[in-house]
Amino acid sequence: MTSVETYRIARTALIKDDRSLRRDRQEHVDAEVRADQIVRDIRAAEASTIWAQEHEAIPHLFPGMEFLTGREVIMKTKLFSLLSKLALKQPALHARVTERVTNATIGSLLPTFRALPPDEFSTAHGISEESYVAGSWVSLKNARENFDPDLGGPEGFDRWVLASMMINPTEAYVTHNTIKNVSESPLHDAAVIDAFDYTDMGEVYKHLLSGLFHFAPIFIEYVREFLESSIEDGICYAEARVNFLYKYMIGADGQENIPHRDWLLMFDRVLNEVKSQLEEQGRGDELIGVRIIYATSRFITPEELEWYLEDCIALKKEFPHLIAGFDLVGNENELKPLIDYIEPLLRFKERQREQGVDIPFIFHAGETLGDGTHADDNLYDAILLDTKRIGHG
């Protein structure tokens, strides 16, 4: 047998083994088969009706188009209505103001939020007035109430702030449609990005975590909204990445004095409150649980990582029901690869054995178009480090 024949046999066996693990290749009960056919029929019918129509506001309409672009049509479909009503029981496993805001600049400026201690409270009137000093703080109340009427007044302020927190279709699919473009997007200087996601640069974290998510009273309500919206979407179990890069959160007094341990206490308290409310409503089975993937950013030094790994172990020992794993997050193409951290990561596994805890790696790896690059090689290191899951791959 030639080497090519041997290779083809091995290749066929590998493909067969891999595909045998796919759910759509396993046997199904009659109800699953019928349900699958119903969904297929609905999709086929809507492809030839709803999706075949012309929409002036949505050019080149088709069923597989980007969600944000086709959202108006998608939400009117029978398929979307059906999925929205299903008890899916699914798991979910993976602004800066530098000058006076005017009509000419509002589109390019993003607000920054920060909790201040009483001795730093601002008496400034607003951010859209001639007297505004670039970079100075203004109370949220004053900024909103005194927002220039030409910019929409308080409602215009709300629209501006909310827009700064969301990526619109053009940004998602045109101007920022690659990893590099997203990382260079102005939104990476915004006041809020999904707190259970991540970003790349320390300066960005300064604005994000010192802003809304990093302020304890808002963090509590953010967690509550995260849980309630997940339940509404039919998610019954989630593992959420929380970036512990900053060692302290800002408390209600405006001081940066709340350690990681208290972050988990707040998270756990809100989680229990939501679960209790569901139990009282007879909906206890709608939320099995939520755990945290301890994350920090991959621009820190290997020596700095040692502190976070020990912190993760300490939190796991005190909150074994909350800590689900560990990850390093950030733009793989620009920041440090896993191999740079191999010594502390291997030592982390040893320390777990010594402390009698189990904290699996759940790495982001391979989020790149490169071939043979450091980011691409992260996949090999993630596998060799026994990662439980791989984000992106």
Explain what this protein looks like in three dimensions.
The chain is an alpha/beta fold and 393 residues long. It has 14 helices and 8 strands. A 4-stranded parallel beta sheet has the order 1-2-5-6. Strands 3-4 form a two-stranded antiparallel sheet. Strands 7-8 form a two-stranded parallel ribbon. The longest helix has 21 residues, at 260-280. The two termini are 35 Å apart. Residues 95-100 and 181-206 have low confidence and may be disordered.
Write the H/E string, N to C.
HHHHEHHHHHHEEEHEHEHEHE
Uncertain residue ranges: 95-100, 181-206
Work out the radius of gyration: 24 Å
Class of secondary structure makeup: alpha/beta
Structural topology:
Elements lengths: L2 H18 L9 H18 L19 H8 L3 H8 L4 E3 L47 H6 L7 H12 L4 H7 L3 H5 L18 H8 L6 H17 L2 E9 L4 E3 L5 E4 H21 L8 E9 L4 H17 L4 E7 L12 H14 L6 E4 L8 H11 L4 E4 L1
Parallel strand pairs: 1-2, 2-5, 5-6, 7-8
Antiparallel strand pairs: 3-4
Keywords:
393 residues; alpha/beta; 43% helix; 11% strand; globular
Could you give a short description of this structure?
The protein has about 400 residues and is of the alpha/beta class. The chain has helices at about 5-20, 30-45, 65-75, 80-85, 140-145, 155-165, 170-175, 180-185, 200-210, 215-230, 260-280, 300-320, 340-355, 375-385; strands at about 90, 235-245, 250, 255-260, 290-295, 325-330, 360-365, 390. Helix 10 packs across helix 11 (about 260-280) and helix 12 runs parallel beside helix 13.
